[in-house]
């Protein structure tokens, strides 16, 4: 699972540890109190914000309350937007992101697909997971405007904090002004504490109130509440940690791209998608990395729109990337003689075509 390795700082962990007994022994604030605290941090009206025990809780209620017939979802993407509607008997219209387009989302093609299928709800994850594709903010707003007649449009901004190609990529403030739009976020990974289980929704007051009424009054744990309080005191350190994640992402992409058998897709998320050469099996490589090098990666055989030829890699600092690339090279080196006996030119011919780079590869300062 992605997790910011640069946050919380050691000083913050010390503060959390010192306050742990109090956070766990006292009753946490109710949803209204935590919402007010979060709304101040987001600079939003509390009436437009709903807090939850992770964003999965919000996905469940959005599906139950607003997805009545069908929902359009680009694939590949996070499985929760597919599994939950399917489990509740809805039609899920899967819009394929194409490998030849480097899995970039073409907003116009997606809009045409939604109209052709007659979808009554739509999802857009930005940046996407597992490929890290990013849709510019102006395009997301155009997408929302074009679908003002749908029952619900959800923008999942789970990894929005690590985007560095735009200064203010979130559309949360605009969602609060639209009648059918909800922005969902789960900042635990960017805060470095996914175990705290904290998520939120931003929508117009009527939509937000409907979701809020469906949730328990005490649905956020004391640890998540304590983390929110500490974040207000450590915002400069948090911003610096996000800059370091963007730096790590760029450096990790460069190192992986040095391996001829890998194609690396540009990312604005905290993950990188890698395509393996046709004769390299992702499941075999995954097992090798775990058993020989203690590195855990995810091959995408279980992900709609992908296969075991793809690996989803969590962005990590340089020492971890060195272990990863050493393990990949060891695996490929052990296989290379066998491949070269089959075809003397295979070392070059089996290397995959490089994905067309996205324009957002370069890191920028925050």
From TrEMBL:
Composition-biased stretches (Basic and acidic residues) = 357-366
Gene3D superfamilies, alphabetized: Aspartate Aminotransferase, domain 1 (3.90.1150.10), Type I PLP-dependent aspartate aminotransferase-like (Major domain) (3.40.640.10)
Q: Which domain of life is it from?
A: Bacteria
Q: Which Pfam families match?
A: Aminotran_1_2
- Residue ranges constituting the Aminotransferase class I/classII large domain according to the UniProt record: 34-328
| Cofactor(s) for this UniProt protein | pyridoxal 5'-phosphate
Entry keywords, A to Z: Pyridoxal phosphate
Region annotated Disordered sits at 339-366
Do the record's keywords include Transit peptide? no
Instruction: Please indicate if the UniProt record lists Nucleus as a keyword.
Output: no
Q: Which PANTHER family match?
A: HISTIDINOL-PHOSPHATE AMINOTRANSFERASE-RELATED, THREONINE-PHOSPHATE DECARBOXYLASE
Q: Would you tell me the protein name for this molecule?
A: Aminotransferase class I/classII large domain-containing protein
């Amino acid at each position: 699972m992605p997790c910011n390795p640069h946050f919380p700082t050691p000083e913050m962990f010390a503060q959390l540890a010192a306050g742990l007994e109090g956070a766990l022994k006292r009753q946490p604030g109710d949803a209204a109190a935590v919402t007010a605290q979060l709304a101040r941090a987001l600079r939003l009206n509390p009436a437009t914000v709903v807090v939850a025990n992770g964003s999965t809780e919000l996905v469940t209620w959005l599906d139950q309350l607003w997805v009545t017939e069908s929902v359009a979802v680009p694939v590949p993407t996070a499985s929760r937007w597919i599994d939950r509607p399917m489990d509740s008997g809805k039609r899920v219209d899967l819009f394929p992101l194409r490998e030849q387009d480097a899995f970039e989302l073409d907003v116009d093609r997606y809009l045409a697909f939604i109209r052709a299928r007659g979808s009554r709800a739509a999802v857009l994850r930005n940046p996407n997971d597992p490929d890290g594709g990013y849709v510019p903010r102006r395009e997301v707003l155009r997408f929302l405007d074009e679908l003002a007649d749908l029952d619900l449009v959800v923008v999942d901004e789970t990894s929005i904090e690590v985007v560095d190609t735009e200064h203010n990529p979130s559309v949360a403030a605009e969602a609060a002004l639209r009648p059918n739009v909800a922005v969902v976020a789960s900042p635990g990974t960017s805060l470095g504490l996914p175990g705290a289980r904290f998520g939120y929704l931003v929508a117009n007051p009527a939509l937000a109130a409907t979701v809020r009424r469906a949730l328990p009054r005490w649905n956020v744990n004391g640890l998540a509440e304590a983390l929110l309080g500490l974040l207000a005191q450590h915002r400069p350190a948090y911003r610096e940690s996000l800059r370091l994640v963007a730096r790590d992402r760029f450096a990790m992409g460069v190192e992986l791209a040095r391996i001829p058998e890998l194609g690396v897709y540009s990312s604005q998320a905290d993950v990188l998608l890698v395509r393996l050469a046709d004769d390299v099996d992702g499941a075999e490589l995954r097992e090798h990395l775990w058993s020989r090098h203690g590195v855990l990666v995810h091959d995408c055989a279980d992900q709609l729109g992908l296969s075991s030829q793809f690996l989803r890699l969590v962005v990590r600092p340089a020492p971890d990337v060195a272990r990863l690339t050493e393990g990949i090279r060891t695996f490929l080196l052990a296989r290379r003689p066998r491949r070269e006996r089959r075809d003397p030119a295979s070392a070059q011919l089996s290397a995959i075509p490089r994905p067309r780079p996205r324009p957002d590869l370069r890191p920028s300062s925050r």
